[in-house]
Amino acid sequence: MENGIHYRTCHLCEAMCGVAIEVKEGRIASVKGDADDPFSRGHICPKAVALQDLHDDPDRLKRPLLRTGNGWEETDWETALDFVAERLHRVRSEYGRNAIGTYQGNPNVHNHGAMIAGLPFLRALGTQNRFSATSNDQLPHMLANLEMFGHQVLFPVPDIDHTELMICIGANPMASNGSLMSVPDFRGRLKALQSRGGHLVVIDPRRTETAQQADDFHFIRPGSDALLLMGMVYTLFEEHLVDLGPAQHWTRDLDLVRLACAAYPPEAVSRHTGIEATTIRILARRLAKTRRAVLYGRMGTSTQPFGGLSTWLIYLLNILTGKLDATGGLMFTQPAVDLVALGAMSGQSGHFGKRRSRVKGLPEFGGEYPSSTMADEILTPGDGQIRAFVTIAGNPVLSSPNGTRLEKAFEQLDFMVSVDYYLNETTRHADVILPPTHALERSHYDLIFNMMAVRNVAKFSDALFKPAADARHDWQILLELAHRLERLCNGGRLGLRKELGWRTFKKLGPDAMLDVALRSGPYGQPVGAIRPALQPAVDLMEAVLPDRHPLRHLTRLSPLDRRWQDLPKGLSLAALRDNPHGVDLGPLRPSLPDRLYTRDGKINLAPRRYLDDLARLHAFLRAKPSNDLLLIGRRHVRSNNSWMHNSQRLVKGRSRCTLLIHPDDAARFQLVDGDDAQVATDAGQIVIPVEVTGDVMPGVVSIPHGWGHNREGIGWKVAEAHAGASINDVIRDDQVDPVSGTSVLNGQPVKVRARKHQDMRQRA
Ligand SMILES: Nc1nc2c(c(=O)[nH]1)N[C@H]1C(S)=C(S)[C@@H](COP(=O)(O)OP(=O)(O)OC[C@H]3O[C@@H](n4cnc5c(=O)[nH]c(N)nc54)[C@H](O)[C@@H]3O)O[C@H]1N2
Ligand SMILES: Nc1nc2c(c(=O)[nH]1)N[C@H]1C(S)=C(S)[C@@H](COP(=O)(O)OP(=O)(O)OC[C@H]3O[C@@H](n4cnc5c(=O)[nH]c(N)nc54)[C@H](O)[C@@H]3O)O[C@H]1N2
Ligand code: SF4
Ligand SMILES: [Mo]
Questions:
Q1: Which residues belong to any copy of the 4Fe-4S Mo/W bis-MGD-type domain (predicted)?
Q2: Measuring from atom 15 of ligand 2, which residue has the nearest CA?
């Protein structure tokens, strides 16, 4: 690659920071924040520098690996791709399409090529046994988007740059850099919020890095958020603070909400949550009475026993106080590639519960079953049992509940293939590993995170390094496999037209599609000089066609659409290339009710699914609060899920994979700082060093996820030396939020004891 400074977007987390990477003599000399990026304004976190370590990592795979009697052997791409397609096809022919399972991990959503090519790949496989990180993550948000706004990816985002009060519940953006809220430089933006007189309130079972910056902080008992939120809804009604603002015209079923909250006065929910009734009332009043305010929840409110209800209630509270779609509240982006509009046009606004999983009868969401039931579907014999598996950029052994059981399941498969550039806890079970190029060797555009950004922005980066001649991008691997699978299905050949279609796709690649999407999107300009002539026709169509007419989708997908008329225009791939630091497309703007995709064009305030789950919440309220120790997770700014621990720079220093425990509990279980503790559930047990701290709530322990690199045969040398233990070896896979099917990753009860005792007992 040319020497000099290259500007691009860091793809590691959701924040989309601009980086300036200096290349000298073909090597990375430095990675710095790009001060000219209009969105991140020079901010980066320590992980950005590790982009270099990823690039230089000797453990990163570059050629396909094949499992043989003599261990792993490298092979060429044609052999590997033919072999994989043939083996998958064999399983499919013998046992049917659903005998193949797939799991798509988190890095897919940071990779537009993999996102686009993933579609034909899944279509070619045709299996219903699909899984992904979604059900260990943001599924409750997507379900609430679908139920309330009519579209699964119409995510509302805190308008942090204009708010005066942010109540942050179950999120730690100081460590995570924001989630479902792409917010580079959270700290800087928070400082700006506070210096304009605004406040941050944090509600969390741990006094997190974010809590330390907050103006107010409240401990909450894990899993009890739905009660707290109900108490706030109750207060709004009781104190006549419900004021929907303009939303009163496009919402329905407010009366059902009033009825639903009647059983949850703050005084009744207080003892379960650990938050005083007066505090609950004050929280509700502040949200209602602060002109620009927002309530925001994330992993801690979604991946827990009441994830569905809590996420619904968070949206609801914003709506009841007039904060949805209002400046400084919870708003919607208008991304340059509008996957919401595109999805709706192709009939993909989402679905839930159309099918149930074979073994546990769990609902599908958007065509995927909950990851918690992956092992069930592999291990349980019968018609429809999964016999072959494909993982794409995922490490579910460390990231999904009950990783040890999942490993047993992977071991008994007839065939497994992983598209991944590391030999790790998951891919070590594969028969073939297909390693793609890495981020700096491919172009980058954030299809997903631009939909959740706190400003409307767009940025495209070309590959920084030219990939080796025998390297393949994710999208190429997936397309090649899809093509082969289709051909095998059709007796070895496809019709001329289909064949031509495949060839064009492979030749042009995802960037050509991106270009079309940009040009025909809200900020595009596909018609150039004839635009003035077309505008009246579009206006006429909008005027005469009913809102839900299929042809309306056409105008909705053109830059000429009424809603988009006053947006800046002219975006295309070329335009983005001319602006290597990225383009600012302006602040979030109100967009409702135009942007709703519900059948009646209204927000459903009380979807049936949530009301049906209230019996469970009420049973929880009536039961005596338990004395169990509850386990929660945590993130650290120098770590990224399971796969950044091979960077010496990031893992050096004291181990961060520790059990946080309150001094009272430590005393109760005779644990001393630095001791090893054994943490156990019905799923399994792990041993982990103890860190005693008043920063976790009594009755709560915390372990970060993504560690546990102590499995045999992994190819991560640095990570192996900093192995830690995997929290998901003790998280049970039979605990899901029944409304959404989301894994319960926070709030499961665990048993903790000093390792010494166990050793002594074993000796006795
Ligand atoms: N207990 C607990 N468990 C959790 C969580 C938690 O908070 N607590 N968080 C959950 C969340 S939010 C998430 S998103 C999941 C993440 O779960 P996963 O997505 O399953 O796991 P990752 O650790 O992100 O692993 C990513 C894998 O992709 C590979 N990879 C990286 N980049 C690329 C690429 O460009 N192409 C390809 N083909 N492969 C690549 C890496 O080598 C690694 O194997 O974990 C979940 N698990
Ligand atoms: N550095 C770093 N950044 C990351 C990642 C990473 O691994 N490392 N992962 C990325 C990914 S994939 C995601 S999805 C995001 C996640 O982004 P966040 O959701 O902001 O990150 P978490 O640290 O999981 O925050 C969850 C918070 O919920 C709290 N919590 C746990 N249980 C409960 C509960 O029952 N109630 C309440 N109220 N709080 C609870 C936890 O203590 C924690 O502070 O981060 C992204 N960014
Ligand atoms: S905050 Fe996220 S996007 Fe920004 S530099 Fe760090 S890892 Fe990259
Ligand atoms: Mo995630």
A1: 3-59
A2: 179
